[in-house]
């Protein structure tokens, strides 16, 4: 089911790629780990080796009789990876100096991840937010669910101011099972407070992927002449010549980006900076191939 943010040619480029979680999330990932016992009952999604601490009541004794090895039976509900896609729709995400605004680019990423997850029989859900969570679609793995996710993204109107930290804490409280949490945002908020929200997920043993989207002009301050800059969220304005502030701006920007990069690395949060002038399929393919090499 194509969406306006995920064209058929983009879907075709993803056919042979897989999104995998780095750690075990409520069991092995359904659709990626097939049962080694052909012909076994379809009641079970898969088997996995017995690990110390596993309950003996889940041991498949028939398999033990055939293989002399202990295997645990896992049901479909236990093996599905559950992923929540948190999509920032605050006012600052409406900025764009090229073909796509940050929100349009983020929506393409969100649509692609939902497609990939559900295609490999994992469960994908969606949370749209600005200063609070505005809509929630709980994770489901049914193929027809994609149209609901696409529709929710497509009907999103520009949101309000950003309160990322509060949103992340609120979202963490709503997610009760260990999950893969994908956050797509420009992260234009107090970095220290945002990090606390990200760590809330890590503390609850979720795996966290952060996609930090910035427009190339936000990175380079590539403007000439006297410019009036307007904050999309507060509507505050400042009139200046970019050349007068560019050096200080670049220093502050480096501190801003280095903070996220280093702190996320220290807390085992997968951080990815993406410029919105990068070809969408190329950016996603690079990430997925890099991630695939980790396994």
Polypeptide structure, described:
This protein has 295 residues and is of the alpha/beta class. It has helices at 8-13, 61-67, 76-79, 102-119, 145-154, 164-174, 191-203, 216-220, 242-266, 280-292, and strands spanning 46-49, 71-74, 82-88, 123-129, 133-140, 180-185, 207-214, 227-230, 237-240, 270-275. Strands 5-4-3-6-7-10 form a six-stranded mixed sheet, with helices on both faces. A two-stranded antiparallel sheet has the order 1-2. β6, α7 (191-203) and β7 form a beta-alpha-beta unit. The longest helix is centred in the C-terminal third of the chain and has 25 residues, at 242-266. The protein is elongated, with a radius of gyration of 21 Å. Residues 20-44 have low confidence and may be disordered.
Q: How many H/I helices?
A: 10
Number of strands: 10
Give the fraction of residues assigned to helices. 25-40%
Largest sheet: 6 strands, mixed
CATH architecture designation of the largest domain: 3-Layer(aba) Sandwich
Estimated structural class: alpha/beta
Mean pLDDT: 81
* CATH topology (level 3) name of the largest domain: Rossmann fold
In total, the number of domains comes to 2
Question: Any descriptors?
Answer:
two-stranded antiparallel sheet; Rossmann fold; six-stranded mixed beta sheet; 2 domains; alpha/beta
Q: What is the compact description of this entry?
A:
The protein is α/β, with parallel strands linked by helices and 295 residues long. Helix content is 38%, strand content 20%. Helix 4 packs antiparallel against helix 5 and helix 7 (191-203) runs parallel beside helix 9.
């Amino acid at each position: 089911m194509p969406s306006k943010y995920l064209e058929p040619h983009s879907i075709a480029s993803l056919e042979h790629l897989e999104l995998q979680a780095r750690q075990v999330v409520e069991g092995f990932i359904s659709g990626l780990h097939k049962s080694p016992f052909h012909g076994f009952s379809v009641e079970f999604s898969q088997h996995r080796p017995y690990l110390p601490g596993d309950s003996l009541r889940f041991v498949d004794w028939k398999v033990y009789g055939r293989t002399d090895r202990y295997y645990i039976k896992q049901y479909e509900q236990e093996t599905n990876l559950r992923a929540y896609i948190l999509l920032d729709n605050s006012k600052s995400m409406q900025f764009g100096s090229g073909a796509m605004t940050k929100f349009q680019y983020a929506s393409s990423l969100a649509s692609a991840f939902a497609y990939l997850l559900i295609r490999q029989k994992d469960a994908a859900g969606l949370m749209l937010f600005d200063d609070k969570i505005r809509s929630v679609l709980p994770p489901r793995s049914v193929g027809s669910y994609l149209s609901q996710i696409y529709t929710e993204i497509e009907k999103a109107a520009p949101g309000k101011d950003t309160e990322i930290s509060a949103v992340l804490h609120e979202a963490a409280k709503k997610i009760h099972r260990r999950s893969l949490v994908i956050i797509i945002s420009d992260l234009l908020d107090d970095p220290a407070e945002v990090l606390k929200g990200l760590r809330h997920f890590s503390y609850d043993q979720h795996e966290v992927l952060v996609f930090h989207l910035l427009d190339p002009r936000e990175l380079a301050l590539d403007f000439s002449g006297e410019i009036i800059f307007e904050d999309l969220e507060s509507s505050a304005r400042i009139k200046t010549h970019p050349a007068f502030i560019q050096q200080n701006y670049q220093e502050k920007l480096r501190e801003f980006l280095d903070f996220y990069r280093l702190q996320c690395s220290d807390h085992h949060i997968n951080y990815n900076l993406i410029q919105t002038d990068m070809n969408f399929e190329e950016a996603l393919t690079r990430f997925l191939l890099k991630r695939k090499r980790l396994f």
